Structure prediction request, 1094 residues.
Amino acid sequence: MRPICVVLIMLGVLVSCKKLEPVNKQFILLDVETTGISFSNDILETDSLNYFTYPYMYMGGGVAAGDINNDGLVDLFFTANMISNKLYLNKGEFKFEDITEKAKITGDDRWFTGSTMVDINNDGFLDIYVSVSGKEGNRKNLLYINNGDLTFTESGELYGIDHNGHTTQATFFDYDRDGHLDLYLANYPPTKFNSPVDLYWYRMNNPKIEASDILYRNNGDGTFSNVTSEAGILNFGLSLSATAGDFNNDGWPDIYVSNDFDSPDFFYLNQQDGTFKEVSRTVLNHTSQYGMGVDVADYNNDNLLDFGQMDMTPEDNKRSKANMGSMNPSIFTKMVDYGLFYQYMQNSLQLNRGIDSNGDLKFSEVSRISGIATTDWSWAILFSDLDNDGWKDIFISNGSRRDINNKDYFKKLSVKLRFDKKLSSEEIEHIPSEKISNYVYHNNKDYTFDNVTEVWGMDNATFSNGAVYTDLDNDGDLDIVVNNIDEMASIYKNNNLAANNYIKIKLIGPSKNTSGIGARIYIITEENQQMQELTLSRGFQSSVAPEFHFGLAKNKEISTLRIVWPDGKEFIKENIAANQTLEVNYNDASEVVKEPAQDKRLFQTVNSEALNVDFVHTENEYDDFEKEVLLPHKTSMLGPGIAVADVNNDGLEDFYVGGAANQSGNMFLQTKDGTFKKINESIWLEDKNSEDMSAVFFDANGDDYIDLYVVSGGNEFEANSPELQDRLYLNNGSGDFHKAKNSLPSMLISGSKAVPEDFDNDGDMDLFVGGRLIPGQYPWPTNSYLLENNKGIFKDVTKTLAPDFEKIGMVTDAVWTDFDNNGTKDLVLVGEWMSIQFFSNTSKGFLNVTENTGMDNTEGWWFSITSDDFDGDGDIDFVAGNLGLNYKYQATEQNPFEVFADDFDKNGKKDIVLSYYNFGTLFPLRGRSCSSQQIPSISKKFEDYNSFASANLVDVYGKEELDSAEIHYEAKTFATSYIENLGNGKFKIYKLSNEAQFSSVNKIIVKDFNRDGNKDILLGGNLFSSEVETPRNDASIGSYLKGDGNGNFYPVLNQQSGLFLTGDIKDIGEIRIGNSDFLIASKNNDELQFIKLE
Prediction:
């Protein structure tokens, strides 16, 4: 017996130590012995039921949270696919009792998916609606009515909502505001995974009710009516979630539907008349392609509902390249052309930007700057304040039971699969499988999130699907519950390490909506404001408890609480103490009379038709990637520019806008009534074959009349083509132009900008002309030019005065200024893959003094630059526009984004090798398939995807070859920046706020927009021409940053300023029309946009 005693003593010591161990993680995973929750969604694969016979079998189950017996504790219901569902009664202190059997809620052999708790009959007890899918058999959804005694009665047929389809999740909301809760069902009709674009297009345009999502209207008598067609919902989509929320703040609930594969998402705006309008193409810029779970919340505390959407792209290089195929450019183009929208394989975080001047809702997709774009095969996203600091964090459930995208394994099975041969159990069992941890992100309060999965104690690997947040122990912080495949459910206890304060609010709603679903709560504390809207179905196949939870950080009270009920009534209370659960009754609300809002914002879009401007830039069809397979973005879509001047001396400003190749530019003359008319059309038509990149007005020949210089460029021409020659048009003083002959030297380059300045102080305007690229040879540098004006004849003096301008790089913009205060005009250049270059104008010519400026490691993708004295110290500072921080490509000094270029395979063609750092190792950016398109020998060197996925850059291309490459550039920052002049030729660079980093910045306007005496900046941009595996840079709607006169800039929300510069902005001009100041934005492949300044 003595050894046993020793063992028992030892065990006691271990247990005691474990109990005394300090809590040092935000979350702790509780075991089944603690909770009593043993549920595991076990999947049994057989010869007849497996991924190949039912490809949806790894979508897993959900979780519904709610207090089913009104004892103040949140209970849990788990759905299962092949075993019994489970209902657990919360007994307090994380102890749960399995009451499934006695509650009569076990279910049967149906394939259960999502679940929602809702008081559908308004008796004060939560009922449970369960969604059903499956390969075959009974697929009717179930409605369990709570009898009030911990038992339930199935009543789906009685209520008329036992839909027999392929439902993933149900969402309850009062879409017609009649007080009754209606029902939206997200359905996923079985569709072959390899279905072509044509099939999606056909079914979208010929929807059938049996394959559609379903909208049920609550009749108010315990029954529902199917109103799918009459409400405008009849559709075809592979719907994996549907989430309700009032996105446009009109008081009526809208709904977002996330769809899988090529079927585009649906964004249904409530029309307030019982119908919906699908607006995804106008409201959004792009979405996730394999859209999964969605959650809706105001994550940046601006009182607008944002939403996140999950996809399945891995974070790490190996899993990404082994499991994900290359995007076919022709299929992607076809998908867009067929109206299936821009869809990319990454998570989406859609930031609500508010309502523009036309009354349209606008979103920006900002997952890259947020840091949550790639989280592997993700299902649920949940916004919730997990550390009670007043800002919503993000939880993401993750994992697929089998790696069904593993390229190598399925290549081995390709012959059998092609001929529909039955697979053996062993072949099914050996489909690769790898558990992955879920993700949790902490909100940094600046649109970015930190991955705190490990730090917060949530890094155990699982195959997770549905999940919810809820306060299981009523201690004021949110715990996490996750439904896993082939593993017991995860119950994470929140330890609230920072001991932050909170408030919980439960609504006692009206008789027909007892939980107050659809209500909004606004709170204001000393340092923050927050807004939440009560919707229960969140994430994936799951629903949260009908209560509000707000983190308050260290605030001990809420200064103002405002509740807006679904019918518009409001309740307001002030000075509410923290750390309590507050119940608010609808009967305490009152009617509110609101005055119509007046739009007094600084910026107002004006319809171009009202100004008689009918220009639309129309790009010619050209596939850059046919010759340059691994080009990062098209270089044939970088125009047009715009120029403004009074060309006929009538005191009214006119403008010229460039055309695309095979499209002439246009000059518009302003008339006295504030409208415009085209002039000199035949002149511009003569040069329509050229592509206009930019334009500038200046007096070229000294006759005191404004002339026009147009820069030619593009990538669709052969090198040294005559269409690449810039043009100079001379003005006779009345606005009549003719093309100058023999005034310019031969410059057969693809240019970017021409910037006039009298650099030699002889009284006439000289020119700097920036060279953008050599057609078909990205990223080889081309020449830039310094042109000296001699009585209207421009002489190339580059070799004598500025030899460094030759092959200096891919120049995008330049600015003349005396940055070193030596009395001469110096030049600052920016470009793609270039550092910010400083050239001092000396008696010996232009000297590159960049090394002496202190501007180290500024290599980036710079697209614009402007200068002014922003801090009022008498010298010139700069603002430079970069690629931004919301792009797939990221760059830092420690982990630069790199490009190598050479003829690596010695076939006489230039090769491009883009590379990026992933967890400290440099890898090729592109995968095996597309890399082999450029260099076919790669597919022979790496015979399978897994070997390529494991190879770093040197493994693939060889150290000697890379070291001797003709081109090697490193980008070390992609941040749009403010550059302060410190004096004595020294500068310091500062990243502008994250609102300025949402996309590339192609134009910067400096002006005191708000008339406070300080210079502000306005940024416009975007880059729509990305290669198809890189989501286009489209999140900018313009940024207005207020200056304080000391070199600091403060972003103003677009919904407050009224600035909505949408589209692929390439240039912005300032113009006065009538008695008002305007901005004109020129866009690639789009119409002009006029912004009136109030």
